[in-house]
Specification:
2 copies of one chain form a homodimer. Chain A is of the alpha/beta class. Chain A is built from 20 helices and 27 strands. Chains A, B: Belongs to the ATG7 family.
Chain lengths: 698, 698
């Protein structure tokens, strides 16, 4: 078979062995994978991560160790990636400073000695990949997707190896058998993952791991009895002993002190060449601990001993870079501050924003900053000229020619911030009690809106009430309670704000993400606790149903005259309240019992991100914040059982009646009775007071 | 002189007098002016505003009363506007609802009766403009620049006037004299402002006001002795008695009950026609209080008795509409909430923002919302892909291809919000201690930056420190103190923020707006007070000079890992602090004396917009806010006298030495001595403690 051109060394030679330095090749996906691991798993851990390098059956000037995303797999024998494996360690530093400043010489020595100690305990070696060790020093600048790195393949420079040519396998009778054996083993089957394999005169080529048990290879290594074994490896740099040997053979050579080798070259079976040699250390009994001089840092493109940098930003799509960058800011919170923060829950929360004014714009921005990407924004207005300076998603041009619709403009602007976000704008007016509609067209339109609105509420997990009137909050409050959705409400005064969550029960009508319910039962004395499902809504404190509040407003009352900070703070806190809450499910709220010891220093129970209040009332004039919690009111016009039951029965008809004023919320909620009895009581009380006053006088 | 074509009534007639309704014309500038007055002066006042209408010497079908911006002038005799004046009242309602709902019939009657009562007291009339009265009902929707309005010229419909032709002045001998007299009076001189004038057989034409004193006109009006006077007026609708008389003559007619008139028509002297008539009420002794039926509402374009709407938005430039709209939101604060708020001071404050990250973007937006239009933004960075979701002025596209420079991009985006704003972006790196520069080019660059930065600080009134490191705040803190500028500082933690103002002295180096110093000296017990100029700066609490803090930061420390709400709240409060402070000049700050009675309910002294703290430390995890005030530290590394004196002497050299570390801030500030003595004391204290511990044991 003429095509196998096996050339053999003509003369038997011996001499000092030279080694050709290893080279490295880092596939981009190696750094991509590492970026993920660093951000999500390793975080601040600097202790080093085991990686696997691969030497491919390729034609190269010298042996090249490649690392790729699969290098982080813990098993060498991952058959999906062809090539011989070798063992490595990624030593990543957390700061550029420590990457630069670390003592490179000392690092090389300690890494090498640790490895050689492992090597001497041959019983720990199950795969010949364990016989080669490299390490990779790095600093990952994840903000810029730049990876500073330096490969090292440590080897002691003080040891001088000698070699003798071994012509045994080149003898004509052995040569053909040998050649067929190699072709079968290396080229016809899948390349073995092990870098070293054994040729035994009786058994032919085998993986080192197969031989360990069969032939007591350790004993053979340790003794001079090596006649039967050839330690075989692929060396792209050449096959004859005059050509420097691949660096990676130094490792097992040191372990064995005297070893018979079969050095194979040729990326294909056509190019196959091999030669046998015996390598040995002339001096005996080397103690690696006494070795001082180690080499092995890789040189850069210019042949200098310097680290290199891989910059991935150019090769990544801007979209995926943006996604990584946005997530990085959030994931870094988990490195040190809140390791158990569940970013996934936040990211997957679908938010419905009712209102795209100052509050709506700011809430949408804050949600985006927290990594929420699924939002629907509802508003019926158009951008007016006074809006852009206060409503942070609009520009002057949006307000020209009568103004663009707010809902769609806001969603467009949000996509300009994060093109990957799923934002929908819906131009729709929320039906309101006290704003009657005409029969016919008017009612038909309301039915259409109700169909859309109930659909939206069911499709989303969290509903934000960010409109500018009390009555526009009624319907979504009621529907939120009915469908068991978390409702976050924000309302503004001139220099004060209210941010609150509505209590909700997930049972029954909920279609969204079912949130776990907090079960922590103990909490400090001095506090009262209200479970998440028993908390009140925006209307629970009111004994008057919402009506048309815009009707008699003067201009300064209409225009939401408010200090700019108020909306900024309210919307920021509204989003934090949601983010904090969904880390814990439908968490309870607490309030300090008014008559408890004022000197009691016990703190309100808190969650992962701090306390999770029911409502926050802030004032920027006094810079005071009031945290309150109130229970659901049994006769609430929006969330009481009687209202929800009535809606369950009559659906749209009920709402249309309420809007048109043909039915009264006070009556349905049973507020009428309560109020009349209240006034009765008050009358009694007043007359009693009056009587007692009289008696005082007399 | 053939050109004066005076036609006279051929036959003497008499009969019932008909009146042609008045019409109105509102120039757009009337509403523009009123919008200003309403916003800035009238605000919520609904009591009515006197206005002046004008009847022009024009060819019209019927008499037209025009109102324009000059209608708000209080004097009739404003010669700059040609035309006959008449008296009016603008009755503006604060809500659309009250405009719609008011009883129009009753309003007409009460307005008319009030007017006629004035009319009967002829002594109050100094100008014949007082003899005509109209009123204008309106609702000004200043958000949309829409003005709903309805003119009325009240007149009693129950009274039936009769007339007799008066041919006296048409007699050939009188006619030519009369004609010349009118031509001179009306057409050759400037048209008189009075709508009625008097023709006296001896004196010729005179203004009514001139006659009042000369001829005891009142007595003549009241008696039948009217032979000598002709009551003259311009009536575009015609001159002969068969043609309906202009409505406006009904008013003086009612007052006089019997009156000789000269009715003149013709917009130019060529068209001049006139005729005399006597108007009288057949019934005697009318009491206006008994009159029930009044007419006078103007009809709309379609002839219906309905209000009309003037929409100015179309005719205004979008720029000026935007300016009005932005200011409206602010000016409405003065209507009810804070009438003495000085918006002008806010508007004129020039702000220098150092840093255009999350804080910079939000501060700029909040300033814009408060009406600040002059800003300069300094940043040396470029927009990165993680920025847009948190830094509210940038978009995804700004981060592509390596990112646009932040400073110029931010200013561009701000102009897209308000094109009238004067925003400048300066890409510049603030020199920092611990970040040395190379000799030569490096130092030359620093000198250039220092020249620019000191220029910017001198040109602005308020300096915001919004950068992301401690050391970048040193130089502007020092320069702010040196030039006596208000410095507002905001810094972020993961869930906490610090917002503070630096104390400053306006004396000496200040080049900007000199702010008044608060002089209120009394304040509640339980508080300590620190004057504005004695307050500390960001570095006053530190005993270590700033150095390179970025050097050893891990990624999560570098990236300002912070909950989104933190920056939103800090920047909002930073702007409110400035706005609140500049209402009062360099106001003092207060802090509660720690050992004061905890049950003392006294509140911290506040200003127009609430308390004006020195520093605000907020935490969004606990939702607590701490208000603190601290005094300037005599050995502060940034604002102490020794540092400022040193800068005064050595200027740039001092700063370059500090940056390069060849000189130590601790030494210049005298901190070194303090610290060594502190440690000495501590050593002593520790040993003393140890001793006392021992004695306890024994």
């Amino acid at each position: 078979m003429q095509k196998y051109q096996i050339r053999m060394s003509d003369t038997s030679t011996s001499g000092l062995l030279k080694f050709l330095p290893l080279r490295s090749f880092i596939h981009n996906d190696f750094w991509h994978k590492y970026a993920e691991i660093k951000i999500d798993i390793d975080r601040l851990d600097e202790s080093g991560r085991s990686i696997v390098g691969t030497i491919a059956l390729k034609k190269e000037k010298s042996t090249m160790i490649e690392v790729a995303c699969s290098s982080f797999n813990t098993h060498y024998t991952d058959g999906s990636v062809p090539g011989f494996r070798c063992k490595g360690t990624l030593l990543n530093y957390n700061t550029m400073e420590s990457f630069k400043q670390c003592d490179k010489k000392e690092l090389l020595r300690t890494q090498a000695i640790r490895f050689y100690h492992d090597l001497m305990k041959l019983e720990t070696i199950t795969n010949s990949a364990d016989l080669i060790h490299f390490f990779l020093l790095s600093f990952a600048d994840l903000k810029c997707y730049k990876f500073y790195h330096w490969f090292a393949f440590p080897a002691p420079t003080e040891l001088i190896y000698q070699y003798d040519d071994d012509q045994t396998l080149s003898a004509p009778d052995a040569a053909e058998r040998m050649r067929l054996c190699i072709v079968q083993f290396l080229y016809q089957k899948r390349t073995p993952n092990e870098p070293f394999f054994i040729y035994h005169v009786n058994d032919g080529l085998k993986l080192l791991s197969e031989c360990i048990n069969h032939h007591n290879i350790e004993a053979n290594f340790r003794t001079e009895n090596i006649a039967e074994f050839y330690f075989c490896f692929y060396d792209p740099s050449g096959h004859s002993a005059e050509m420097p040997l691949s660096w990676h053979v130094r490792h097992p050579a040191l372990a064995a002190q005297r070893i018979k080798c079969l050095r194979i070259t040729g990326a294909t079976s056509n190019e196959l060449q091999y030669s046998g040699m015996t390598i040995y250390l002339p001096s005996n009994g080397t103690d690696v601990n006494n070795l001082v001089n180690w080499a092995g840092w890789e040189v850069d493109e210019k042949g200098k001993y310097l680290p290199r940098v891989s910059s991935l930003a150019q090769s990544m799509s801007p979209e995926s870079l943006a996604e990584s960058a946005i997530n990085l800011n959030l994931k870094l919170m988990k490195w040190r501050l809140i390791p158990s923060l569940n970013l996934d829950t936040i990211n997957k929360t679908k938010c419905l924003l009712l209102g795209a004014g100052t509050l709506g714009c700011n809430v949408a921005r804050s949600l985006m900053a927290w990594g929420v990407t699924h939002m629907t924004i509802v508003d019926c207005g158009r951008v007016s000229l006074s809006n852009p300076v206060r409503q942070s998603l609009y520009r002057y041009e949006d307000a020209l020619q009568g103004g663009k619709p707010k809902a769609t403009t806001a969603s467009e602007r949000l996509r300009e911030i994060n093109p990957a976000a799923k934002i929908t704008g819906v131009s729709m007016k929320i039906p309101m009690p006290g704003h009657p509609v005409s029969q016919g067209d008017g009612v038909a339109e309301i039915r259409d809106i109700l169909r859309k609105l109930t659909g939206l509420i069911q499709e989303h997990d969290v509903i934000y009430l960010l409109t500018d009137s009390r009555e526009s909050r009624w319907l979504p409050t009621m529907l939120g309670a009915f469908y068991g959705k978390l409702v976050i409400n924000a309302a503004l005064g001139f220099d004060s704000y209210l941010v609150m969550r509505h209590g909700y029960k997930t049972s029954g009508n909920s279609g969204g993400v079912k949130m776990e319910t907090e079960t922590i039962a103990t909490y400090p004395a001095g506090f009262r606790r209200i479970s998440g499902s028993d908390l009140g809504c925006y209307f629970c404190n009111d004994i008057v149903a919402p009506g048309n509040s815009m009707k008699d407003r003067t201009l300064d009352q209409q225009c939401t005259v408010t200090r700019p900070a108020v909306s900024n703070m309210a919307s920021a806190l509204a989003v934090e309240l949601m983010v904090s809450l969904i880390q814990h499910g439908n968490a309870p709220a607490y309030y300090r019992i008014p008559k408890s010891d004022p000197l009691c220093q016990e703190q309100e129970p808190d969650g992962l991100l701090g306390i999770i209040p029911h409502s926050i009332r802030g004032n920027i004039g006094t810079l005071q914040t009031m945290i309150t919690a109130t229970e659901r009111y049994a006769n609430c016009v929006a969330c009481s059982a009687s209202i929800l039951n009535r809606y369950a029965c009559d659906k749209d008809e009920f709402i249309i009646n309420i809007i048109n004023g043909t039915e009264s919320l006070e009556t349905v909620a049973g507020l009428n009775k309560i109020m009349s009895s209240m006034f009765d009581e008050q009358d009694v009380k007043v007359s009693l007071d009056f009587e007692s006053d009289c008696s005082d006088d007399s």
